[in-house]
Amino acid sequence: MPEQLEGSVAVARTVARCRPQVVCAYPITPQTHIVEGLSVLVREGSLAPCEFVNVESEFAALSVAIGASATGARTYTATASQGLLYMAEALYNASGLGLPIVMTVANRAIGAPINIWNDHSDSMSQRDCGWLQLFAEDNQQAVDLHVQAFRIAEELSVPVMVCMDGFVLTHAYEQVELPTQEQVDAFVPLYQPRQVLDPQAPITIGAMVGPEAFTEVRYLAHETQLRALEVIPRIGAEYAEVTGRPGGALVSAYNMTDADIVVVAMGSVLGTLKDTVDELAADGTQVGVVGITTYRPFPAAAVRAALADAARVVVLERAISPGVGGPLTADVRGALAGLSTEIVTVVAGLGGRAITRPSLRAMLLEAGRGALDLLTFLDLDLPQIQRAQLTGAGR
Amino acid sequence: MTTDVKFYQVGSFAVGNRLLSRDLRTVQSEETRANALTCGHRACRGCGEALGARYALDTAIEATKGKLVVVNATGCLEVFTTPYPESAWQVPWLHSLFGNAAAVATGVASALRAQGREDIRVVAQGGDGGTVDIGFACLSGMFERNDDVLYICYDNEGYMNTGVQRSAATPPAARTATTPAVGPEPGNRFGQGKDVPAIAMAHRIPYVATATVADLHDLEAKVRRAMELRGARYLHVLVPCPLGWATESDETIKIARLATQTGLFPVFAAENGDVVDVTPIRHHVPVDPYLEAQGRYAHLFAPSRRADVIARIQAEADRNIVRYDLLGRRGGT
Lengths: 395, 333
Hints:
Chain A is an alpha/beta fold. Chain A folds into 2 domains: 2-243, 3-Layer(aba) Sandwich (Rossmann fold), CATH 3.40.50.970; 252-384, Rossmann fold. Chain A is built from 14 helices and 16 strands. Chain A has helices at residues 7-17, 32-43, 58-70, 81-86, 88-96, 121-125, 139-156, 181-187, 214-243, 269-282, 300-307, 327-335, 357-368, 382-391; strands spanning 2-6, 22-25, 51-54, 75-79, 102-107, 132-135, 160-165, 173-177, 204-205, 251-254, 261-265, 287-292, 294-296, 312-317, 342-347, 375-377. In chain A, strand 6, helix 7 and strand 7 (160-165) form a beta-alpha-beta unit. Chain A is globular, with a radius of gyration of 21 Å. Chain A starts with a strand and ends with a helix. The model of chain A has no long low-confidence stretch (mean pLDDT 96). Chain B has 11 helices and 8 strands. In chain B, strands 2-1-3-4-6-5-7-8 form an 8-stranded mixed sheet, sandwiched between helices. In chain B, helix 1 packs across helix 7 (216-228) and helix 3 packs parallel to helix 5 (136-145). Chain B is globular. Chain B starts with 47 loop residues before the first helix and ends in a 9-residue tail after the last helix. The model of chain B has no long low-confidence stretch (mean pLDDT 93). Chains A and B meet through strand 3, helix 3, helix 5 and strand 9 of A and strand 1, strand 2, helix 3 and helix 5 of B.
């Protein structure tokens, strides 16, 4: 039954239906409402048996999750921004140990300057840490991806981040349909850990590996990620069967018929893009939209297939790699290697700046004329930059 | 169980104690001991940490009837025991990172609780670097939440695994690779110190104790007591390091004993924030023989004797003696 819910509340209630046994978190905006919601459910006993651990940092949050997961508990945490970076060492550790922890990242910018609003700098900075990264377009998809994340994580024995745009999704009230407890129970079976700390059968987890085997360990991790490219659509299809809603896929495509220009993006901006593209279509300009749902592993073949007929591709980036441009562009360019597709980057919506339909419309029309530079900053406030340069603040 | 027999003579600190009845002997003297840390590991000859860890864990295994999970911080103990594909551990053992052992142990304990398996107990262990420096925040968090974990710090007073650098547990005037014995104030600076057992007590956790590898009966008794209690417990064990301290490898026990006999390392136990037991010094010695036996203090004796520095170290020892009444002058233990 559809309900009008805040994104965070919808995610909290969904995670609860996945029956986690250990939940830990450290407060950071804009992730807080999710774990606040879970703490209430644990405290009132409706989630039993589940332990909610209030920790002293994000580093500790993920460390608690690591210990719990290695003991065979289904484990969940959530974070954002600086918190994700504070976890960085433990992120690599969790994936290296093959622990199927599920974590929500309420995407937020990274300081300095400190900024609590949305962009994708945080999770993109951790793109190589060995976690799967799924990006939600709206709160319904955030809900659906969380349920699937537990299945994917536990089937592959890898940790999964579900990324949802901070504030834009976490704090937005939308109509959302939560899967019922029966549906979730049918879809997410009891967690069967690959290996577990047990006095009856003692094992050593986290041994030191030297040059003679380290490459092989990494090779296997890479292979697991590639396997995820098959597992994610399969589990997505199963989810669709159970709930009647579309499951998570690698990529999504919209308005692709006769589209010479295709814009590639991730997260909540896809909604605005689709509206803009509809407007343009009404005016007779066809622009397609490809959404990246699975960012890690990067679905290069699916992206190539989706973009095969595009003459021009605009990659809309919610993060910047200073001195380079956009992190997503590099992946898209790699996926289209050997094709003559023109690829340009548009950096937009950093630190929570609203990405508006008029700006997107103007940008896409320019892209259609082939008038965009290789790298464009949407809505860049040039007078502000000139003032900063004059006062020396830009140096 | 230690109430009837007091171990005053030097020889009776040791393992066998054939003069004792069986139930008073150490866990380690029994052929049925668990061998948590078995042979084949790569510790240096004379390693105090390997000795301390084996005693502590074998006792914990005995106390829990084998229902034990161990979490290990990065450091010597982790490196020398688990060169893949080998492992010297006969317990379920998890190593994650350098600075998170206490939090990982909390995770293990939380999972066991959620699974209704609280009969399985959790020990976290690390060196002084992983405990008093990089792991300190996680340690304090675990204390503050009173999580059901015994954390054991094997303190060898420096970063020995990385080549003997200074840690917050390195004592004043000691030479390390980052506090070299050069200049007018050679070795580590005199500071305020970082007394982690006292900081642990300030969290008013159920149990805090110190021990050394010189008195293994005491170490075992403290592990046993710790495992009788629930909640956050902390055991700080002094483990001399022949490599880092520049001592002979057959002098580890002797050096540890000198640390207690000088008063530099007070041995005590505290419950709920209050000291409940102090091991008195039976044979009080000045700090000189302790310092002279260690190459890391060689600059205090040659080319000329640094009486000023030695006097400052002596003052620290004297302060401990007063604070913990180590000579029993207040009519205590």
